[in-house]
Amino acid sequence: MSGSFPLLALTGGSGFVGRAFAPMARRAGWRIRHLGRRPPPDADPADEWAFLDLSAVEDVDLSGCAALVHLAAHIPAHHGDPAEAERCWRINALGTLKLVDAAIRTGVRRIMQVSSANAYAPTPESPDEHAPLFPGSRGYYLGSKVCQEIYAADRCRGEHVLLQTLRLASVYGPGQQSGALAVMAQAAASGGPIRVHGSGGFGADLVHVDDVARAMLLLLGSENAGAFNVGSGVRTTIAELATLLAEQTGAPVVHDDGVGKEDWGFPALNIDRLRALGCQPTRLADGLKL
């Protein structure tokens, strides 16, 4: 009976976005084959698993798969470490190329990959999908994601493969273990204080993880190819986030003295292309309550 449902190959199923996406995909009628060095610890018993090491892609079992969803990536612990440049390129760029090549040779005709909207060239304007990609910071990681996009698109060209690239804003939500928002939310939940570095002027487009998973499912059911910005369309600063968390929990906000010039961060995304398909992002005030 299960064979009547389409099979989806998924990398990064144990990651933050993957853990939100997989249950939604199952409910939508997809079967899942996880690709990774080991099965996700919380995978559904009905899920399949096949070995994949993105740092050294060799044989990967994509037989019978109608789609490949590629979420896995190497994100450096220290973005300023030059030693990370080679590892980011080998896993994120070259590993993706080899995986996409294997999918095409196996007959997979639908590929979805995740990139980062923080790779757009610095601008105070809201970039759409045609804006130039040239990261102004975190270049070893974000540069490898730009390279990933180029490699995947070039390999798919002329192959009658539907390639969708999701450029994600800063993702938040239940179960998040790292990042400024997670640290601040944990502090607020425990009564505070919520600490803000300097004026808290660093900002980003914050998108709920469930919105990302819903956008992925929507696009899997469409024939729209190319790049898609996935965000809220709203820029939120650290100071604004701290105020919102304080209003919801009553925890105090403490501003630490800033040292040096503060990073402005990233703009809100233009998400008109995704909105046109029916996506409506969750308001940050509501998303923080989930």
UniProtKB/TrEMBL annotation:
Listed InterPro entries: Epimerase_deHydtase, Lipid_A_modif_metabolic_enz, NAD(P)-bd_dom_sf
Residues forming the NAD-dependent epimerase/dehydratase domain are 10-231
- Source taxon at top rank: Bacteria
What is this protein identified as?
Answer: NAD-dependent epimerase/dehydratase
Naturally occurring in which organism (per UniProt): Sphingobium chlorophenolicum
Q: What is the lineage of its organism?
A: Bacteria, Pseudomonadati, Pseudomonadota, Alphaproteobacteria, Sphingomonadales
